[in-house]
Amino acid sequence: MSDTIAAIATGGQIAAIGIVRLSGPEAITMAEALFEPFAGGRLSEKGDRKLVYGNLRSRAGELLDICLCTVSHGPGSYTGEDTAEFQCHGSPVVLRALLEELFALGARQAGPGEFTKRAFLNGRMELSCAEAVVDIIDAESVEAARNAAGQLAGAISAKLQGIYAALTEVSAHYHAVLDYPDEDIEDFRLEAYRGSLAAAEAELRALLGTFDRGRLMNAGIPTAIVGRPNVGKSSLLNALLGYERAIVTDVPGTTRDTVQERLRLGIVLLRLTDTAGIRATDDPVERLGVERSLAAIREAELVITVLDGSQPLSPEDGELIRAAREAKRGLLVLSKCDLPQVLPLPEEGLPALRVSALTGEGLDRLRRTVEELFPLPAVPAGEILTNARQADAVGRAIEAMAAAREAMDAGRTADIVLTETEAAMSALGELDGRTVREDVTERIFSRFCVGK
């Protein structure tokens, strides 16, 4: 990391403000070569993280913009290196011209996530916090953003510090037993070690237990809206979205393919799939749509079965109700409640409610019901695992801790207990980055956008 990197941090679209970032040993020198403070003096004399107003000029002295610039000296900066940031008017032409000037001065284009990667490599940020950066950028709900912000503030790291310390103490004891076999090292702490391992294991199991909901919080819950043709599936989708996404007609079988949209329903993010009406058909195109509908049901975390409440129950309706019951979570919606109702609501089994896509009646209750099916874990923001890599590491740490306790209980040799304890420490070290492999680090930061 001996070079200086530069990137546009605000994308290529026209905006009110555009930001160009620099990091590396020549960052401040390059910024001073192009920026002229109105108050006089040099940028490096203005103090760290102070916004300075002035002229942005090319190397030839031509005025490019009137903007703000700030610098920060390492190691106290975001990346741990000298940094500079230009806040210009958001013209892609101006930003690109500034970037070209910086390249001519010796900077190179930053790769995806390279600023945050340098922060991690320079010890300014643990790996779980770095992963939270991209999660907060990608967040599609307030809940996801809050959880990512908590992780960025170190919630996961703080939770693991005590656990790692307990493992270190156990490891030190068994190292002493192995290193000094002729010494009479008292085993009076053995019961305390068992207790600390059990407590740490329980804490990690609770953390791992948040992952299923956390994964769905970030990625969205795969949801299939199913039903016979013309029962109101597409109308329900449009009503939830608030605009005409799917074609709605009185002709059965209009939807012949799956229609997918993302929708926030209360605190729940849904990946909605409006499926083709499920019925026996000789039409090859409609039959293919039915096959895709059945596949969507199998893959869904939530199946919303829509029945026409104004019509009697058909054999196909019965099959769809069974499919919802067999799903991970199912919900029964009796549509067209603005018309005289024929179907009664079931008294037990699936959650069920009446809805009118035409009037909006029942949509609030539908939102509340979905929220009840997918409650958020009752833990502080930042302590919900959303990352599969982190969940895998926690799971391996739990397995190793359990194996260490079993070895203690069985009176196994010290080397077995030590091996399992250090395996747990290594797994937990993958969360903050102290034991993570370089290829894993590269894969993590490849998720980032350029400029972050």
In helices, the fraction of residues equals 40-55%
CATH superfamily of the largest domain: P-loop containing nucleotide triphosphate hydrolases
- Strand arrangement within the widest β-sheet reads 3-4-5-6-2-1-7
> So, CATH architecture of the largest domain?
3-Layer(aba) Sandwich
Order of helices and strands: EEHEEEEHEHHHHHHEHEEHEHEEHHHH
**What Rg is obtained from the alpha carbons, in whole angstroms?**
29 Å
Number of helices: 15
Structural class call reads: alpha/beta
* Count of all domains: 3
Number of extended strands: 13
Shape assignment: flat
- Please report the first level of CATH classification, the CATH class of the largest domain: Alpha Beta
Give a short account of the largest sheet.
7 strands, mixed
Distance between the termini: 16 Å
Strand content: 15-25%
Q: If you consult CATH, what is the topology of the largest domain?
A: Rossmann fold
Outline the structure in words:
This protein is α/β, with parallel strands linked by helices. The protein has 3 domains: 5-125, Probable tRNA modification gtpase trme, domain 1 (Gyrase A, domain 2); 131-210 and 383-432, Four Helix Bundle (Hemerythrin (Met), subunit A); 217-373, Rossmann fold (3-Layer(aba) Sandwich). Helix content is 45%, strand content 17%. It is built from 15 helices and 13 strands. The strands form 2 sheets. A 7-stranded mixed beta sheet has the order 3-4-5-6-2-1-7. Strands 9-10-8-11-12-13 form a 6-stranded mixed beta sheet, with helices on both faces. Helix 7 (190-208) runs antiparallel to helix 13 and helix 13 (388-409) runs antiparallel to helix 14. The longest helix is centred in the middle third of the chain and has 25 residues, at 155-179. The two termini are 16 Å apart.
